[in-house]
Amino acid sequence: MVEFNECLNRIEVQDINSNGLHYTWNQRPRGVHGVLKKLDRVMGNFKFVDDYPNVFANFQPYRNSDHSPMIIKFPLKKKFRVHPFKFVNSLTLLDEFLPIVANVWRTDIEGYGMFRLCQKLKLLKKPLRKLLVIKGNYAEKIGKCREELCRIQVELDNDPFNEDLRIVEGHYLQSFLNASREEEWFLKQRAKVQWLKEGDSNTAYFHKVVKGKINRNRVETILDGNDIWKEGDEAFKVIVDYFSNFLGVERNVEPIISPDTLFSKKLDAQHANDMAWRIVGDDFCTAVKEFFLSKKILKEINATVIALVPKVQTPGKVGDYRPISCCNVVYKCISKVIVNRIRDYLGLLISDNQSAFISGRSILDNILLSQELVKGYHINRGFARCAMKIDIQKAYDTVNWKFLQFILKEFGFHSSMVSWIMNYVSTSSFMININGSFHGFFQGKRGFRQGCPLSPYLFTLVMEVFNLMLKKCIREDNGFKFHWRCKKQEITHLCFADDLMVFCHGKFPMKYLGAPLICTRLFKRDCKVLVEKVKSRVNNWKNKSLSYAGRLQLIRFVLSSLPVYWASVMLLPKSITSEIEKIMRNFLWSSGDSRKGVAKVSWNEICRPKKNGVLGLRNLNEWNIALLSCRIWKIISGHNSLWVKWVNAYLLEGRSFWDVGFKDKMSWSWRNLLKIRTHLRDFFVVQIGNGEDTFMWYDNWYQLGPLSYVLTPREIANAGYQITNKVNEVITDEDWNWPVDWIRIIPQLAEFPVPRLVRDKKDTVFWLNERREPTPFVVNQVSKSISVHESNVGWYDLVWFQQRIPNHCFILWLAILGRLRTQDIMKKWKSTCNFSCAFCNKQSDSHCHIFFECNFPQEVWSKVKRNLNITHKDGNWFEIIQDLQGTLKRKNIENFIKKCALAATIYHLWNERNKRLFGKVTNSMEFVVHRIMEDIRLKLFGLKYGYLGLNAEICKHWNIPIQKINGSDGD
């Protein structure tokens, strides 16, 4: 199947939209077991999906065959539907945008502020839609600009010294770059790709992502309540009826808990921002304030569009789609104001066993504590205990509003806050977005909206009532017993939103909150799902459209982050981290093709810091330890979390974390945490405050290290101390009282400084960075401290400078390392082959030869140096790089241009060499120099005026119009 997947990636095909059976092949069971696979597929390439956007496949039951019959349906005609207006961010790049907004906003409208804002927004739709029609056809716009640019460049080629043509060409080039930038921003917004911040133009990638999302999310058929397939308008009616019956039906709920069972607390806190704020800001603020004064919200503002996102690979029923509420900006601003008022105080109302959405609490605490509590569940002896994993179906969507109002009052919320929340929640109306068009319109009668900023916080209050109900049952049930190791903290259950773990018998491992819950050790088979997740992101033909820089970004910001959640909870097997790193390595060098991928630089080298001359990616094993170090930091700093409290109560029992030994029956996750502490202990240092939380003998609070390094527990006990002593307990009358024997063994104790205790100041745990300086604990800093470091390279700024051309610098980096596949390197692998330089045909090429020694590159360099007024010593490759890294140290526009020239020349010489060797295409020296100079010129086009001293004189020299487009100064 690996080869088959690689074949699909290479020919760039994907599954078309389908319904019916998910598994399309059924191996008939010989005994009681059979095999189901998704073997038969209907696939199409990019052109097919483009030409037939509404095609879909239906997989029928097998009947008497092993294979599912496939029916491909091509809708004969598509019913015209008016698509709703959606704001496109690229409109803000147009000169006409702000004048249009200002013109509409001058319209005089009578009424309340909220009404005025809504009416002006309605009036704004028409001119913006018209502007999008005129200026938003980016493909046509780019085509025209390209055509005009090509025409003027042909004229310029015939008359190269015509300055007027040069100026005209500059204007056409600017128009073309502007249009390309608008298209990329438009496609990036539609593709919803957040990680791709750096790289060459990625419009081809964005195009394919957008098409893939549209194909995957389109709804053509649906199963109704009688399991009958419906198509077209009938399918849309089934969806609307489902949600109107589900969200638009109110059920009477009687109070299930008396007021005296609840806490009585009171709360109080506020926020806002937008695009053309200078024009619309006053009206926007007036509308938001009006809600809090009147406690009423306009119907238009509280209208919500429900977007359907498939929860399964082959959705059939409406329940297979997750309803996500798309709320407007005014609505979200109001909700965020309410959230900012209440969230900091919810920790006072919500019990410790709820970890979702409460500041200072983490989902990882639930997983870690669950791992400890289910330890030994696979053994049929020991304490009688059980755990139930419960997922409440449609939990958000079924909350009764009267019940919500009741609990808000009983929790002690101010009457104004209750009115705001209830008006905000209970006046909602809904439309369903199906295939880009709105269907249905109905009033909501219950539930919270997924996608609303306030909903998660309200749901935690609802679940707190469940917690109080359990506690009440425990108080009234004399036969109730707490789960093993839960009585001290009275833990009956753990809760994260609608995921409950109530402490029945079941099989392990199982999944809890997205991570495996294990009662023994973590095996490789338990982590296969993580490897498959990484593979699914890489084995995607759309990724082939990414450049080296784009693939590097995908690895850095997406692939490297996929294992982070698991790695924050458990020590991953090295075989798993190695397999994931192998996938990333193959993807970087060959777009994921595991057969072709020959790494030019080893992965261990790549994972060192950039200043060491490499790419600065993460080593997963080191990153895993760094993430787990956060668990250790929380323990020794006394973090106020449920898991830390449990660890102190049952695992440490008053002892220091550094002193606890290994036991036979400890959980696998706790054992691994104790294993890695030896690598990290010397990095944790404590700054003494009141001395009440720092262990005298085991914590690293003195500059010479923990005293337990030189004093044994027996010596401590014989001197009358306890191994659990804190620093403040050993100080008597602001001085030490050391035994004489200790001072003879450790002379430094005589001059041992007594820390000044500050009663109101808590002890603080710091991390020693790579320079051995105490810094606040940050996981990134841990990773830097424990990673392998080598000396920094002098040419770092030559390659990884800001605003570089990524693909050029990547090739320059490989060239400096001597890792390009030149013929002198290839000879070591294939000594029988005859090699000759593509430029001179006199000898085999090498890095020095093809970049500096051969006649062709010498002519190119001579021309480039003359154009840019560059002078450097002649010599071999390494001497030249060493010379340049000294002369180009200062940050100014002249040195920036020279760095770009170095990278561009190396890139285009390498490109020309490959074209001659493998493409049988030969370009002249003048053509190569022209490409180098044009790439530098285009880069300067994208910079802000004034960046590093970019001025009118330089713009004139490079034929760049002064009216420049805005660029970014960042890396």
Automatic annotation (TrEMBL):
CDD domains: RT_nLTR_like. InterPro entries: DNA/RNA_pol_sf, RT_dom, RVT-Znf. Residues 290-571 form the Reverse transcriptase domain. PANTHER family: REVERSE TRANSCRIPTASE ZINC-BINDING DOMAIN-CONTAINING PROTEIN-RELATED-RELATED, RNA-DIRECTED DNA POLYMERASE. PROSITE patterns: RT_POL. This is Reverse transcriptase domain-containing protein. It comes from Lactuca sativa. It holds the Pfam family RVT_1.
